[in-house]
User: What shape does this take?
Amino acid sequence: MEVLSPSTKRIDLTLKRSRFEAAGCASYWVVDPDEPAMTGWDLVSGTYAEVGHVTGMQTCRANLPFAVDIQPASLIAD
Assistant: This one.
């Protein structure tokens, strides 16, 4: 899981994501604290497929590497 920051957001969503995909990393999840939002991708046949995108207090269930329910807004400190 990656927490995006303004200075590295573009790198995290493009270069880093493609390198993790090429390396065979099973999942890649990013949290955007500005929205707050979270997007996740799982490796399917060697390519990342989006498996979830939620914002605010919406709940997303990640299954890899283990099952967990995540609400992006709950990850952000007040």
Notes: The first helix runs from residue 9 to 23.
